[in-house]
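Form 7-S
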Amino acid sequence: MKFSFLFFLVLFFAKQAFPQVQSDPNLLSKQIEQYYSATGQRILILDSDASKLNPVLEIEDINELPQLLTQDSPYSYFGFKDHYVVIFPSFIKEGYQAKSNTKEGTSVAQSFEVRGKIRDNEMKTVIPGALFSIPQLELAAQTDVKGEFSIQVPEGTYIGYFSSMGKQTEQKILKVYRNQELEVTLFESVSELDLVTVTDRAIDANVMSTLPGATRMPMEELKLLPPLLGEVDVIKSMLLLPGVSTVGEGASGFNVRGGGVDQNLILMDGAPVFNPSHMFGFFSIFNQDAVNDATLYKGDIPAQYGGRLSSVLDIQTISGNTEEWSLNGGVGFLSSRLGVNGPLNDKTQLMATVRAAYPTWVLKKIPNVSVSESSTNFLDGNLRLDHQINERNSLTLSGYTSTDYFRFGADTAYTWQTNLASLKWKAYWGENLGSEVNLTYSGYRYSVLGEGTPLDFELKSTIDNLGFQQQFEWSGAKLEGLQFGYQINSYQMGMGDLIPNSEESLVIPEQIQDEKGIEGALYLQMPWKVNDRLQGQIGLRYSHFAALGPKEVYVYESGVQMEPETITDTLYYNSGDVIKSYGGFEPRFTLRYAFTEDFSVKASANRSIQYLHLLTNNFAAAPVDLWKLSDSYIQPQKAWQYALGLYKNLNQNKIETSLEVYYKDMPSIIEYRDGAQLFLNPTLETDLVMGSGYAYGSEFLIRKNSGKLNGWISYTFSRTLRKVVPEYGDAINNGEYFPANWDQPHDLTVVTTWQPVRRVSFNATFNYRTGRPITLPSGIYEIGDDIVIDYQERNQARIPDYHRLDLGMTYYFYQKKNSNYKSYITLSFYNVYARRNAFSWFFQPTPELGIPKSYRLAVIGTVIPSVTYNFSIR
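Output:
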């Protein structure tokens, strides 16, 4: 009886102390969305306070919503940068004002710096764009890309708010009587109102940033895209962006703005990746449980990056969680993965993942006989250790290893391995100068195994790269954002070894000379600002490369085409001798002029030099292609790229639109003579020629960022043409321009995501692009008993156009607010209408007549379903 009386007494006072709860729990959510559409401002509030605001059943002017919600209630509000409105209990500010009014004297309170980092409890990573606010002072700050914020606060005691999209807003008492350093973890919000809607970047970042053609995609955003073959894939996601394409299914790598696959610098925690693909491009090496974010630079490339002509894809892995351990992973029809993340002690954290794929059973279902008789699998793993030495110094050790196996038919197998490692030391020297030192290793191996007796053999090649980079960054009031540093990279390339696999093998062993080289660079990147409307960046980079011995270099007869028969001498270089060196300046310049807060124009120009080349005589790069350094005969590739873009946001930044045009001048590129032999060729330079080329195009994007239905439509028109007129020998295509192998003028992509309720989302992706160029026969002749095929000029025909539809669904299982177990399931369908997209078009003689017959090869000609169960335990 006493308990019942006490319960009703507490309930009576609680009812008197707080406003009545709104009758419709969804009404407030709808009103806040209307307010955002009208003003461009998001309303932030504690989940526990949302139901205690005044009910507003009818609104004449939606702009008055914050005032109506808080009038005659124990709540107040303030705005932040015309983007956010923070609603908070009034007693917080009133108590502070009352205390301030009772202070004696008129001296100004001393201020201290409050710095902090906001982390994501579920992703075990930092949260860019999170909001820190102190309602008493109507003071707020957002975290940067590192999840960090810094703000000056007067001395005193306050209540701090910490907010981010889809997370519970947290409160902490702050006693500011000295400089403070905070670290806060935000948990997933369970409020059905979903009021906390801070994005991970400024909502007008696409308009106001000074880098055209740069796209950053955090893993939280990547997970909203359709899962392809059961996994969220970084490379596949990048292919959905304008200006990024591939020549077809089963192709390793990607093409950006008319560049070859070797013209993209791909980094994982600073270590270069030479082959980003598993299973010939169907999976990437980047495990979704290990990736924090991915940034693609395809317009202006910052000065800290070099060595490639077209783009930079910078992948950063997840740092270890500092507070608790978690276990996460997924089990699917095609692949499975498992990872752990947590603290080893107060200063050291661990992140480790492992992934395995077993898609052979899917290959058996593909109509192509060669593919259905094949088998494949891969295994990879990530490891990362973060250690905080002290307040100013930290270390990060990151590693990755993988192995792939693919058997094509009955007697040929391919294996390749990637090993990456990086050791990063971050240090702060004083208040304004920071330094980051990164030591990296990248190793790549591949082998082709012939197992048909008596021609059993192993053909193998290797790449070893060791890199060192130190970068400084200045954060003072003057020249804020200034970056400068230096880089050194050494290369050792195994150009091919052919080894018999048994004593009975008839294969003759052969070894091609290894190649060595060293590349160095100095660089500086400086932001500049005339006013809020006119800003930009200036970058200057100087790179130098030297091909080194030991090596034997052939000398050819002058005045004629280089052929093995025209060798006149051999030069011998000892270890460390410089065979040939190259160098040059690589300036970069960007400009942004903002007409309004939602409309800007950007322009950029940059020059790049590339000393490393991928050699392939296939239409698409493969994991067993050959990489080569510049030398006495093979010059570096060079390019100037110019870009101009218009960026306009609509409907209070909820819809982004952009139009970019570019022109790329390539005065020095590599091409191949007709019938070139690239493997096991001791005189490789005789089959390579230097040419020139250019590429141009336009990219249009319209993107909806919020609401239950969102996504984007992108269209790219592009051309990339090449011309080869050697000093000696025959010109290709009679000296006229011809399309590059990856020239695909039209590319249309549609991406949609629909989330009708909180725990279910549907997504779809459609892609159409022009068929790539090929060279077809122009005539067939019979000379005696022989059939002779006469081919037309290079790349003057095209395979049929490509188009494909993928569908997916994600269901998030119900979980309690404080549950330690979270899970969701993804269902995807690759190539829904079973389109048999041609990958290549070739001719083979018929057994009966010997007359060549046309064949089109479709790598995948059927629908591939996939189901993956994903989980997280903390």
